[in-house]
Each structure stands twice: as C-alpha cells, then as structure tokens.
Design brief:
By secondary structure, the chain is an alpha/beta fold. Helix content is about 30%, strand content about 30%. It is globular.
C-alpha cells in the first residue's frame, strides 16, 4: 500500500474566520387535512451570502456561497478554474466580512497573475455567452490533460458504502435541507472528508481545496457528490486528478463526453444498492467486482 505523502510545505498563510453556515428564523408551520393546524416556531436556514474573490488586489468573480470552509474554497476554486497551477502558487488568503458579503483576498504567484491578466485582456470586448462569467464559447472547456489511469480501482461495495455514508455526514443538510455535499472516500469506501455548500460547485471546490491543503494523493480514493453531475463538476474533478466521480443524481451529456475524454469514470443515480456507470466502466471492472 502506497504511504500517504507528507503535507506540502505551503508558502501561504491563512487568516481563519469561522462561520456557522445556518441561521435561525421564525416560521409558520401549516398542515392540511383531518389534523390541520398551524403554529409558529424557529427553524434553521442555510446561509447564502455573496463571496467576492480578489487575486493580488484584482477583482475576479463574485459567487453566492455558504460561508463555511472558505479557505478551502479559495484554494480549490483557484486550482479548478486554472488560476493557479498547484497549491504552492497560492501564498496568502485573508477573509474580510463586509455589509454586502465576504471578500476573499488571495495572493498568488506573479506568473499566475500574469496569465490571469492576459486571459482577462483577451476576453475584453467579446460577446458574452452568460456562463458563470465566461465571455466566449471557446472558454467554456479548459484544456486539461487526461487523468492518469490506475491499474487498481475501487470496488462496487466501496462505492455503495461511501454513498450510504454521505447523507449521514451532512450536518448542514440535516439542519436545513438546503445544501449540497462533496465527499472524499478511500478505496475501501470510508468517507473521510465532506464539505457542504448551497452550491454544488462550491462544495466540490471546498473539498478539493481541503485535499490540496492536506496533500492527499487523488489516486488513493474517489469523490462522491450529492447532486447531478454537470460538465463543470467533471472538469473540476479532472483538474485535481480525481479519476472517479460518483453522483447521487443524473449526469448530463456534456459531462459524459468530457469524462470520456479526460479518463474519468463517471457514475450517476448512486442510491441504495445500485448505480449507473456512464464512462470508463473498465476502471470498475478491472477491480473484479460488478455486483
């Protein structure tokens, strides 16, 4: 068994700010039928705030997110969006709470900043297609190398075990019913890390950021998500080097095509004792179990 690599000697520092992720609200419960009644009580709502990302003082994007694990989010987003090449390119993260939301101020390597500026300059003046700030259709899909194939793969029981654990390890979802989750499981199906957010992409970025900070080898496990599998989710997983993405809901056509091209095993409808494999089933079959 390959030993776990030591965490990288990160050059960046983090000013940690802790957020709860949910808030109390007074609601009116209403029932109908024979036992109809209504009463007022307190409920918990998932927090959704504007989070702005700045790189070396330059505004880049503003998203709606749950304000938890934002350091992980900043690192994961920076990598999966191609802003940095590795965790060592991110030097510092500071969180600043404002009346309108939260600002993440990140300091990145000068080479990465130069590439980011060139990208923004090339996009200037183009007609927008309206996809998450992308201003041209040729910018939708990033140029990524296929994920390195592995000789040993995960078993069907391990996938089912990880999926079964995912719901029980979503405290914000259990409290509010309004968040998505992304989890990292070992090859024997133990769910080791889970991150939550109102946005499914944000949850995955948070998880990837944590894997980067802990120097987790992506060949030692697989990712489970509580949502559908869109092409962005496949692209983010591949950017991290994750070669298996297991979704509780359905994938899209673009996600399946991208997974095939990037050497990612994509599975969907992972519920109960079953799931459907949409790309690279040989990664599962090569481990010797399909039942």
């Amino acid at each position: 068994m390959t030993p776990k690599p030591e965490p990288l000697p990160y050059a960046y520092s983090v000013e940690t700010t802790s957020y709860v992720g949910s808030e109390s609200a007074a609601v009116l419960r209403i029932g109908t039928g024979e036992h109809s009644k209504f009463h007022q009580e307190n409920d918990r709502l998932a927090q959704e705030v504007a989070v702005a990302l700045e790189f070396n003082g330059i505004s880049h994007a503003t998203l709606l997110a749950t304000p938890t694990d934002l350091e992980d989010f900043a690192l994961g987003f920076s990598l999966t969006e191609g802003i940095i090449r590795s965790a060592s390119d991110l030097y510092d993260i500071e969180l600043s709470e404002r009346a309108e939301g939260i600002v993440i101020q990140a300091q990145i390597a000068s080479a990465c900043l130069h590439e980011l500026k060139m990208r923004r300059r090339n996009l200037a003046g183009r007609t927008g297609c309206g996809l998450c700030g992308i201003e041209s259709l040729d910018e939708v899909r990033r140029v990524l190398p296929p994920v390195t194939a592995r000789h040993e793969w995960v078993s069907t029981p391990a996938i089912l075990e990880a999926v079964a654990q995912l719901r029980t390890q979503q405290p914000l979802y259990q409290e509010t019913g309004a968040t998505h989750a992304a989890g990292w499981a070992s090859l024997d199906g133990r769910l080791l890390y889970v991150r939550e957010d109102v946005g499914r992409h944000n949850a995955l970025d948070k998880l990837i950021g944590h894997l980067l900070r802990e120097a987790i080898d992506p060949a030692t496990g697989f990712t489970v998500i509580s949502s559908r599998a869109s092409f962005e989710m496949v692209q983010k997983a591949a950017a991290m080097g994750v070669s298996a993405l297991i979704a509780v809901s359905a994938p899209t056509t673009y996600a399946c095509a991208l997974a095939n091209d990037l050497n990612v095993m994509l599975a969907g409808f992972a519920r109960g004792n079953a799931f459907t494999v949409y790309s690279h089933p040989e990664f599962l079959l090569s481990h010797g179990s399909t039942t």
